[in-house]
Amino acid sequence: MLQPVVCPSISSEYRQVFARAVFQTHGFQPNWLEFLIADSLMLDEAEPWPLQGPDPEDLRFPALAHFPAEIRQNVTVEHPTKHLATLLA
User: Fold this and answer.
1) What are phi and psi of 6, to 5 degrees?
2) pLDDT band for position 12 (50/70/90)?
């Protein structure tokens, strides 16, 4: 089972990014992102990620997905790009 996890700032960023023309060429249905967000587990904004990264704005992604291995209970945390590639394969 796949459970997408988002927070308000990530949902907002997804809407901005996927509105770009480059994503319109992939043939996604008009409201696919809104359905995906609606089916996602909506969490509060995560605490700031303690490590530095090339884009400080992107640090909210690992902060939101950072579940210690000992409490994951075989849940895999997967990067959205990897998952999308799997879906399109």
Assistant:
1) -135, 170
2) very high
